[in-house]
């Protein structure tokens, strides 16, 4: 029974489809792994290994693609070979999870069961069940520079804003608890659509790509800041 439970748990990791992100790559069904060529996740959508979550860099951590699921992974997580039916049963580079699934073998370093902290929820998983997600820019304190990222307010954690470096990353690099903040509109500056989160001297300034997107984010953040977790609650308050 334990072996059955473990296999079903692994199978579930391949059934999550990415919705509303900047990619049209359909997720392979479990039974299609190795039998059909996957559509690769684009390199520019990922800043860290989609398996071990270690950031990529130009020198020590190169990007590789798992030939079974199409994920972008580091060399350590793709140091496995499995025969793939769609490639004439020739051995191909695959990630650890696909290797276990396709071969039935186990590996020494099994990260299964690791507790996921608040920042370790994958962007694709969270975005597919979000109240709002999109690309935004978060300005630094002097308002001149900033970092563009993928911002998400999840349905199952609607009082927190998660910030990812890229829409396919498997770990957020920071989060902002929204409860108690005030949402402040700012006049358009140099064709930039600006708004702020403000609380007790703490100020976060955001830049949206369009005025319509800015208004959507202001409304979503205001709901979360007021502790409204469902649209029905907002209607009752009104």
From TrEMBL:
Domain PH: residue ranges: 129-226
Localization in the cell: Cytoplasm, Cytoskeleton
BP GO annotations: cytoskeleton organization; filopodium assembly
GO molecular function annotation: guanyl-nucleotide exchange factor activity; zinc ion binding
Domain FYVE-type: 43-103
SMART domains, per database record: FYVE, PH
SUPFAM superfamilies registered for this protein in UniProt: FYVE/PHD zinc finger, PH domain-like
GO cellular component, one term: cytoplasm
Name of the protein this chain belongs to: FGD2 protein
């Amino acid at each position: 029974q334990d072996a059955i439970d473990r296999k079903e748990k692994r199978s579930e990791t391949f059934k999550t489809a990415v919705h509303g992100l900047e990619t049209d790559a359909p997720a392979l069904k479990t039974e299609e792994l190795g039998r059909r060529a996957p559509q690769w996740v684009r390199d520019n959508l990922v800043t860290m290994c989609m398996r071990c979550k270690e950031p990529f860099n130009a020198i020590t951590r190169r990007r590789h693609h798992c030939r079974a699921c199409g994920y972008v992974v580091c060399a350590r997580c793709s140091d496995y070979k499995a025969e793939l039916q769609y490639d004439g049963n020739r051995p191909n580079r695959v990630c650890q999870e696909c290797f276990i699934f396709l071969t039935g073998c186990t590996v020494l370093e099994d990260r299964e069961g690791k507790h996921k902290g608040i920042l370790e929820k994958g962007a694709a998983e969270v975005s597919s069940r979000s109240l709002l997600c999109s690309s935004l820019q978060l300005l630094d304190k002097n308002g001149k520079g900033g970092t563009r990222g993928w911002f998400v307010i999840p349905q199952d954690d609607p009082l927190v804003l998660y910030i990812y470096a890229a829409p396919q990353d498997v770990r957020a690099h920071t989060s902002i608890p929204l409860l108690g903040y005030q949402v402040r509109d700012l006049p358009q500056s140099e064709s930039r659509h600006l708004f702020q989160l403000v609380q007790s001297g703490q100020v976060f300034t955001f830049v949206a790509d369009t005025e319509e997107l800015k208004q959507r984010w202001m409304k979503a953040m205001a709901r979360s800041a007021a502790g409204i977790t469902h649209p029905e609650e907002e209607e009752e308050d009104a």
